[in-house]
UniProtKB/TrEMBL annotation:
Domain HTH lysR-type: 1-59
Pfam families reported in the protein's UniProt record: HTH_1, LysR_substrate
Assigned protein family: Belongs to the LysR transcriptional regulatory family.
MF-aspect GO terms: DNA binding; DNA-binding transcription factor activity
Lineage of producing organism: Bacteria, Pseudomonadati, Pseudomonadota, Gammaproteobacteria, Pseudomonadales
Gene3D superfamilies hit by this protein: 3.40.190.290, Winged helix-like DNA-binding domain superfamily/Winged helix DNA-binding domain
Keywords: DNA-binding, Transcription, Transcription regulation
Domain of life: Bacteria
Name of this protein: HTH-type transcriptional regulator DmlR
Amino acid sequence: MDLFDSMRIFGRVVERGSFSAVARELNVGQPAVSKQIRALEQHLGGPLFARSTRHLSLTDQGQRFYGHCQEILANLETATRSFASGQEQIAGPLRVAAPVSYGRLCIAPLLGIFLQRYPDVRIDLRLSDHNEDLLKENIDLAIRIGVVKSEGVVAMPLGTSTRRVYAAPAYLDRHGMPREPGALTGHNCIAFTLLEHYDIWHFKRDAKELDISIKGNITSNSSEAIREMVLSGLGISLSPEWLFAADVEQGRVSTVLDDYQTTALPVSAVLSPERRRSARTMAFVDFLREHL
């Protein structure tokens, strides 16, 4: 067994959420992917996935191992690329696409630091909540949150986006504080429709996992709009921590169900295979891994 290959396959199964999807991506049969995961579990001495649940979910040990895999594989790729590129100049135009809120709050504040390090790079930052066509729009790198299912692209992990449940104090004063996930069925939940299964919120506490089918009178494909609706007291949302961090600090919103874990979303740098040969593109990927 090649340990690095098995770690890469394990990472893609986690990110795609499906053995069959990774098999199609690698152009192999699903049994081959399953065999690699089983061999990795035997090597580690324990299960990585909880196979008894309806959804493919990681065990606690699997979650920790996934985090270590991301770090190890990122360091390996950086070291390999550094050796291969030598003193290749990092300069020229770099077109980066990102979701609107994430780009504004998490990417834009970092660009000055990157440009101080690489002053000969010129960045064109394009913000949109829709996945743009990398080739058609001549995008060097797109940052995507959630499982990457596009074929023919390379998805490089940057980290994860932790989510929490948020509501405005005014909403909670009117409708009460939900004390357990099942109580959300009696609340106006605002869903972000660009995520798969956006109307099912997954919670975990100790060894117990819960899938809650939420209901509400409004949905949106915009994180910015959902934030404004939550602030106005319209309802409750399951959203990334970075979206509401300043609002929580200033007391404009409260976190709900803090005793429960929600599913974190993978954050990836997505690029066409040929862009991996671009020194400025890969320098930006390494920079994001360092700072996000």
